[in-house]
């Protein structure tokens, strides 16, 4: 279930209570008159089944509470209540299949920002990938896959395309477009220093086959895996099954390909550098395409179930 806290002008409190009382998936209704200080107003709290949350939020936004008050939402991990059990049973559908669009837009908008934290993770992930390449360590390559933060902005691109939120698309594209080249540049510099310091040998890298050669070997399965990963990742985001995202992270070779390309370029192996760059491009495009298709399908489902679009455009993050 989800916990809602609403700050509303006193003259709209009855309307808010009417929305929540009429919703079969809502329970644990609490009214605190005059408790809101900034913004000022009454505070209404309720627990809502996930599958009913999207419709409740739409009705609350129709009351302009997002402008004249406040609506906050958080996930409830445990609810020991017969009333909560009844509310979830009465709500149509299944919580795991429900998409809370406001939550998805806010979450993807936050994870698509180009900031110091995002760039730091990107650089660390590429450096880990470079270490895995020069030491021929698949385990380190997997570690780089998990650390890489690139799925957030890729998912945000899909959300922006489906919901026609071009500001979100631009922000996410900026994060990817700046994040990868900058991380690869830092990795190339570190690789050059490593070679000069004798940490690895150019001849060994350019020699016989290695266990991590799969990183730059682009082919049909590169696209297939990227499509499957993008679909699984978007399903995980929209169904709140975040544990599945770990499998997404370690199934695609975005960050490893970037790290491999940087190392190969420094060591003068341009064939591997170009192949790795192609691998990176295929994975990025495949993830976005699959995530967009999955989200578009779920969006069409939600619209057909609600009788059409009735939501305002929301600010991302």
UniProtKB/TrEMBL annotation:
The keyword ATP-binding does not apply. Keywords: Membrane, Transmembrane, Transmembrane helix. The keyword Secreted does not apply. InterPro entries: DUF389. Signal peptide: none annotated. This is DUF389 domain-containing protein. The chain crosses the membrane at residues 116-135, 141-162, 174-194, 214-237, 244-268, 280-297. It comes from Allokutzneria oryzae. It comes from the Bacteria.
